Structure formats: C-alpha cells, structure tokens
Hints:
Order of helices and strands: HHEEEEE
Distance between the termini: 94 Å
Strand content: 25-35%
Helix content: 10-25%
Structural class: alpha+beta
Radius of gyration: 30 Å
Amino acid sequence: MARFLHLPSPEEVAEEDPLSGIANLFDVSVVFIVGLMITLFSVYRMSDMVDSKSEVTMVKTNAQGEQEIIVKKGTKITAYKVTGKTAAGDGERLGTAYRLANGQIIYVPEGDAK
Length: 114
C-alpha cells in the first residue's frame, strides 16, 4: 500500500500557489458588493425602482443648483431638466401649492370639496 501513496519526505519543501488567496478575495468582494447594494436599497427605500409596475418621481439637484426631475412609470424612465424660463399659454388653474417651514410642499386643489 505504501508504494502507491507518495508522501513527501520531511526534507522536501511543500509547493504553495502564491495566487491561491486571490480567488478567495474575489469571492469575498462579490459578497460584500451584493450586501452593500441590498443595504442601500433598503436604507433609501428604493425597492420601487426595480419594481416593473411602480411609478416613482425624484428631483435631483447638482452642486450648481440645477434641478432634474426623474420620472419612472413602469419600465420607462424619463428625465426632465428644470429651467428658469417662464412659459405662457392658455390653461386653467388647478389649485395652490404651499411650502411649509420644514420644506414640505402641499398641493390644495381648487373646486368642490366632495
């Protein structure tokens, strides 16, 4: 039985692959990235962004103060840039918007209260 089993002698140095630890680092980094994505989605309550039936509207402001409105309806995402230009045309007044002290905006529609 000993002639089929090759055991290294104590004088032989065992060969080790110097890159064997890289595969483990890659696996750990993939698990870390997936965990970070799940955490960010749950913290910012962004699960609606990946739901194909949801509708989401976000306002994004960059460092220069320019705003962009991002609207997601189903699987279609549309971005609108907000400009300071005034528009004119025929229309009908729908209601009034109020900004509270905490920054929240409340819309009050005009018309009959049913």
